[in-house]
Specification:
By secondary structure, the chain is mainly alpha-helical. It has one domain (2-83). The protein has helices at residues 2-6, 10-14, 47-51, 56-68, 72-85, and strands at 23-25, 43-45.
Length: 90
Amino acid sequence: MARVVRGGCVLCRHLGRGYQAAGVHHPREGQGVGQRASNYLAIALCRECHQGDAGFHGLGKHGFYMRYRLDELDLLAMTIEGVATGDRFS
């Protein structure tokens, strides 16, 4: 998980906002009620992109997609790519 958050928020990077310290979002895709994904499937998001009014939990799954044209699997792919290549999202 430390390697995931070290790179910063993948959405901020995608939007050209530069490096923003990140926490972890666990995708719900394919999970049952009350379950969260494995730590191996963690997504790096800053507080605003995660829980803010314009973030994943603030907008909800559909609203987030409508605003950014990205879903959890897109964010997960960007996070995995960043970890695999060792990119520092700055």
